[in-house]
Amino acid sequence: MGRLRRALASDHVAGWAFIGPAVLLIGVFGILPIVWGLVLSFQKSDLIDPNTPFVGLTNYRALAHDHVLRIAAGHTLVYTGVFVPVSVIGALFVAVALNRKIHLIRFYRTAVFVPVVASTIATSIMFLWLFDAQYGLANWLLGKIGVGPFGFFDSPRGALYAIIAMTVWGWVGFDVIIYLAALQGIPHELVEAAEIDGASRWSIFRSITVPLLGPATLLLVVWSSINALQLFDEVYFVTHGGPPPYNTAVVVWWLFSLAFRLGAAGYAAAIAYVLFLAILVLTMVQFWVGNKVVHYSS
Amino acid sequence: MTMEAQADRIAWPEEAEAVERPRRRWLPFSPWHLVLFPLALIMLLPLVWMIVTSLETQAESLHFPPVLVPGSLHFGNYPSALRSAPFGRWFLNTFIVTSTVVVSNLLLCSLAGYAFARIRFFGRAATFMLLLATLMVPFQVVMIPTFLIVKKLGLFDSLPALIAPNLVSAFGIFMLRQFFRTLPVELEEAARIDGASRLGVLFKIVLPLSLPALATLAVIQFMWTWNDFLWPLIAVFSQRNFTLQLGLTVFQGSHDVFWPLVMAGNVMSMIPMLVLFFAAQRYFVRGIATTGLKG
Questions:
Q1: Chain A residues close to B273, C-beta within 8 Å
Q2: Residue A204 C-alpha, separation from nearest chain B C-alpha, in angstroms
Q3: Which end of chain B is more exposed for a tag (fewer CB within 10 A), N or C?
């Protein structure tokens, strides 16, 4: 028994030695900030003054009277509500088109995948130029088919949609990769049987492909929503929340501005926690609804 | 079939015309080309236009209708961009930060992932769940306190501020643990009986069998770190500590109408990422297909 105990003890030591560095780092930079963020949301802080008095629920009460936050929340919902269906449904069609063995298919797939590795900033710079109101290629091309000209990022009403177009370009390849992996899992026999029965391509797509892609669709809807609700880089860099006053203001942009530009870090922490809660609730609702609609094949 | 095997098939499709419905041929090629070719052009347009503009003169770039084919190729824009901003420094910073983060993640996630997969120790399940839970918390919740922690540690406005919070990721631990569990345990047991230490087993047997998983983690982590913008924006302040992404925003802001210059800088910032993508496309595809993550 002594040997067994010793072996067990050494396993405990070995296990903790192996995970020690990782646990320490995640403790300091992963778990501590989660707790500290909650504490901060009940404090007044400008990130400079070491004195951060507790102010009770003041920060959370202030949420209700924040005019900019209301605008930003509205834009965040519009952005998410358009971006998610456009990118996911678009990716579905693109993936189905790409899921075949024809010449040039590797070229087509690469063309769709490449934007995924472009950073948000590099993408933004490309689109600032492409969407330039005066000299941009987009206005010239759209003019050829009799549309425009558009102000794009300079347009008070259009800027948010220009951001949607740009982020769909950057994201769609990601969704396509997930869909392609799921399409490979659809049994050929199923499609062939339907073809023999004389089903049209469209009805095969609707009645076989789309339902079997349900789990992938649910994953993409949840994942894209989580990311869409956290839109920041493009708004910060391209439109600065504008055109003035707040035509592309979104929640994370506003809480960043509050914390790091306007000296209201405690209040920003409260917004961050409320957004976290909203994301959590939305994710749970999406899974709940999704699991009723989506059928998982065994 | 596993997702990984599927992912490999995505990256390496066989090219063959024959399979596509031979009946109902009204074109000498598959009608799908009529959809896919314009689509590919649209997807490539911003990239191609960036490269074209980076080779134009200033006058050509500010001409409407746009000059689609520059009169001659002005490669001089590239050295000009390098001279007009400390791109060298930003490249070096980004390279130091990214390579440190990738190497450290490979090492620390391997160690922790292996322990969670194979060693039975006190508190294993609870610790693992706790680490997993941190994955659910969005960055904007932790960014303000992380800034305060980094400041308290005296790291603000330094490269270690960019590195320290990213030295290990719960995602990487989870991914490698899942992979290690698929390996046959008999090999490891045999090595243990032969007197190998845990560390020896990990480095001599497990990791050599895990190269695809390690490559996947490496390219995903590389992409995250190289492209990250929000954390560097918070963690550093002086231009000498900028990463490329931060530098690009400043460069674009101060050379607003000098598009050829801006585009040359942008092209250069993307080259390492693009080279890695084309060299390791299958690992990107696998990384995304199996984990569903983009930074």
A1: 117-119
A2: 15
A3: N
Q: Does residue B86 have a cis bond before it (omega within 30 degrees)? A: no
Residue among A78, A240, A82 nearest A153 (CA): A240
Given phi > 0 = left and psi -120 to 50 = alpha, else beta, which region is B228? beta
Report cis status (omega within 30 of 0) of the bond before B66: no
* Residue A56, pLDDT score: 86
Q: What's the whole-number mean pLDDT along residues B259-263?
A: 93
Q: Please name the residues in contact with B79: beta carbons below 8 A apart, sequence gap of 6 or more.
A: none
Residue ranges of chain A that CATH labels 1.10.3720.10: 58-293
B22 touches chain A (CB under 8 A): no
Q: Which residue has the higher pLDDT, B1 or B159?
A: B159
Token pair for residue A73? 């929340």
Counting every residue written for chain B, the total comes to: 295
**How much is the average pLDDT of A264-274?**
95
Give B291: exposed, middle or buried? Use CB within 10 Å, 0-12, 13-18, 19+: middle
Per-residue model confidence (pLDDT) at position A9:
57
Rounded Cα gap, residues B66 and A179, in angstroms: 37
- Angle at Cα A266 formed by Cα A263 and Cα A271, nearest 5°? 105
Q: What CATH superfamily classification does B86-291 receive?
A: MetI-like (1.10.3720.10)
User: B240 in contact with A at a CB cutoff of 8 Å?
Assistant: no
Q: Dihedral through CA A16, CA A37, CA A259, CA A263, nearest 10?
A: -120
Domain ranges for chain B, please list them. Answer: 27-74, 86-291
Contact indicator for A117, B274 with CB cutoff of 8 Å: yes
- pLDDT exceeds cutoff 90 at A94: yes
Give the Cα separation of B81 and A125 in Å (integer).
15
Q: Which of residues 67-106 of B touch A (CB under 8 A)?
A: none
Do the Cβ atoms of A114 and B47 come closer than 8 Å?
yes
Mean pLDDT of A138-144: 92
CA angle (B57, B89, B87) in 5-degree steps: 10
Q: Do B111 and A137 touch (CB under 8 A)?
A: no
Q: What CATH number was assigned to the domain covering residues A58-293? A: 1.10.3720.10
User: How many Cα neighbours within 13 Å face the side chain of A80?
Assistant: 25
- In angstroms, the CA B136 to CA A243 distance is 33
pLDDT at B145: 96
* Spatial separation of the C-alpha atoms in residues A258 and A236, rounded to whole Å: 13
Dmax over Cα atoms in chain A, in whole Å?
A: 86
Whether the CB-CB separation of A251 and A271 falls below 8 Å is answered with: yes
DSSP string across B25-53: --SSS-TTHHHHHHHHHHHHHHHHHHHHH
